[in-house]
Amino acid sequence: MICPKCESENCHFVSQSNTTSGSFCDGCCGFIFLGPIGILCGLCGKDTDVKEFWVCDNCGCKFQRGLER
Ligand SMILES: [Zn+2]
């Protein structure tokens, strides 16, 4: 992978998943207002919130996949 900013090949792949805190909070809020169905809505909403991107070790630029030439 080549950095689109400085064109360095010194990049590494990062995968982050944000499924715990946000979903749990939404589930609680949903339960208060909607009951058990609200929990499902809150959990389904952000279950697939996974961030995947490349980070350039040279300049610190973050970029998505698909930019390689
Ligand atoms: Zn770079």
The total count of strands amounts to: 3
Whole-number total of structural domains: 1
Oligomer: single chain
Overall radius of gyration:
18 Å
The molecules bound to the chains, other than polymers, are:
zinc ion
Low-confidence stretches: none
Helix proportion range? 25-40%
Largest sheet: 3 strands, antiparallel
User: H/E series, N to C?
Assistant: EHHEE
Structural class: alpha+beta
Q: Please state roughly what percent of the residues sit in beta strands, choosing from under 5%, 5-15%, 15-25%, 25-35%, 35-45% or over 45%.
A: 15-25%
Rounded to the nearest angstrom, the distance between the terminal CA atoms is: 8 Å
Q: How would you write the strand order of the largest sheet?
A: 1-2-3
Give the overall average pLDDT.
73
Separate helix tally? 2
Backbone shape? rod-shaped
Structural write-up:
- This protein is of the alpha+beta class and 69 residues long.
- Helices cover 35% and strands 23% of the residues.
- The protein has one domain (11-63).
- The protein contains two helices and three strands; from the N terminus they run βααββ.
- A three-stranded antiparallel sheet has the order 1-2-3, with no helix packed on it.
- Strand 2 (50-56) and strand 3 form a beta hairpin.
- Helix 1 runs antiparallel to helix 2.
- The model has no long low-confidence stretch (mean pLDDT 73).
- Zinc ion binds at residues 3, 5-6, 8, 56, 58-59, 61.
- Residues 3, 5-6, 8, 56, 58-59, 61 line the site of zinc ion.
